Amino acid sequence: MGELRLMKGNEAFAEAAIRAGVDAYFGYPITPQSEVLEYLMAEKPHERTGMVVLQAESEVAAINMVYGAGATGKKAVTSSSSPGISLKMEGISYMAGAELPGVILNVVRGGPGLGTIQPSQADYFQATKGGGHGDYRLIVLAPSSVQEMFDFVRLAFDLTFKYRNPVMILSDGVIGQMMEKVQLADPIPRRTNEELIRECPWATTGKPASRERNIITSLYLDPAVQERHNVHLQEKYRKIEETEVRFEKFQCDDAEYLYVAYGSSARIAQKSVQLARAKGIKAGLLRPITLFPFPKNEIVSLAKQVKAMLAIEMSAGQLVEDVMLAVAGKVPVGHFGRMGGIVHSPEEVLTALEKKFIGG
Amino acid sequence: MDEKLYKEIVSDENLVYKKTSLMTENVLSYCPGCGHGTAHRIIMEVIDEMGLQQDTIGVAPVGCSVLAYEFMNVDMQQAAHGRAPALATGIKRTWPEKIVFTYQGDGDLAAIGTAETIHACNRGENIIIFFINNGIYGMTGGQMAPTTLPGMKSSTSPYGRDVKTMGFPLKMTELVAQLPGTYFVTRQAVHTPGNVRKTKKAVKMAFENQLNKKSGLSFIEIVSNCNSGWKMTPTQSNQWMVDNMFPYYPLGDLKVDGELVSQQSAVSSRQSKT
Fold it and tell me: Could you list the residue range(s) of the whole structural domain that residue B117 is in?
């Protein structure tokens, strides 16, 4: 087994990128994720693996560097926090349109606008419903521990190349900043150019005589062709929904009340389940790991079992809409969450459950 | 045309010029009289003559040349508006052995993409930026560009560009020449055979710089016409370009081998070095 190390979530992400055989990181400083770029610069990954690390002039430039590298089949990653992710949305939409691999980490902070540097989960809609323009989806992974900040980098790169679709790791200021022990997986080498050319025949790696030129574009001026492209993308998203749903259940077997929560809120909700059970309330937790694809079917089947569901998220209520859509009125669905960088406590969560659904 | 006559005209003994194999068979989408087609051809000829097709990755912009990848027979990426130098950076940093170029217009490079352009130049990315300056947004129907001349009419400056409220035409080429990250900066044109030859020399030098890993970016501005946007015939537009664009955007080398050259001695300076 690999080495065990105490790390911040942001540092674990950066170390994971080096060990996942990532070819390039392009980023721009913003709190609370600057440790990603700082760690990478200090680690000299160029000497360790040949990985490129570049501080770009803006988040806009950084995501477009990911576009350029990704379009050649290289494993490229960027990270930012909410206001910076808004800037990246143009590039992300282009990447989705051009079907490019690439991984984007969002260490979410409170908004709107410049907001606060404290943790939040208010970018759920932006991550899962598009964010940029046009009909597209990202694959969205939600780590709830520093270990998952490490592990999901490899998973994200597997998925982004499998589907040629950008993947977002939707973290938050809690997970990015907190320190936990991490089991570091052994490094895998970067792909050689020969391997890359074999595995990514679509990539713009220079046109040999043996094939037609490769073109990476999201432009289809003929509406019939554009619609065919849209249909193709939607078919891909349906396949992702069929194949890639990931979630975790905690004390759901006999649960009468269900928390639905991801990321740091899932950690808090898990504690709240224990507090509830100590009081004789049969609570359970469904933790979506993939926010897109959303674990709809699991919610549908749990709706047959529980009396009510409560979405716990550090926002005014975004995840709750996906829960409601899946539940389709079968059981009551509520929302609880603090905003503005305030992190709710397990006790607050339990009180919300009791007030909304149990009484007293 | 009569087929027999056509065959006679295109017969081998009459052939003085051939399309480079690095231009595709697709019919150019540019307006008749526009300089883009010539600029495309020169670049592709140089890549062909230097045997660099397999080693070259190009980046197309947003603007009239958004479809450059339809015509240039090399691997190409299409960029978001203004972001081509960022894409090129991502490519070159991860494939340092490849030859990377962007092809951008004035709106793309000098307005929305100013930051990406300046910073790619300032980092000294070992890429080539081709900058086609026709003083107008051609693709969207002739709006004012950052390079539109003072007093020049466009659909968004219908009474002429008033520099008091609309700002001054931006001389990007002079600007990037000042940056230590640029290695070769020149301004050329393609409206006469003589200018085409000069431009082709400059293009070749830019590719040689990159191939020989000279430290810095090569930046080639091509002052061009937009007869449709300027609402002139092609001939009139070329004359207007000579009379009005060239005084503001004088042709010649600004920087050669990393050294600034004075405007007067620009062309002769490079010729003495090559």
Answer: 26-273
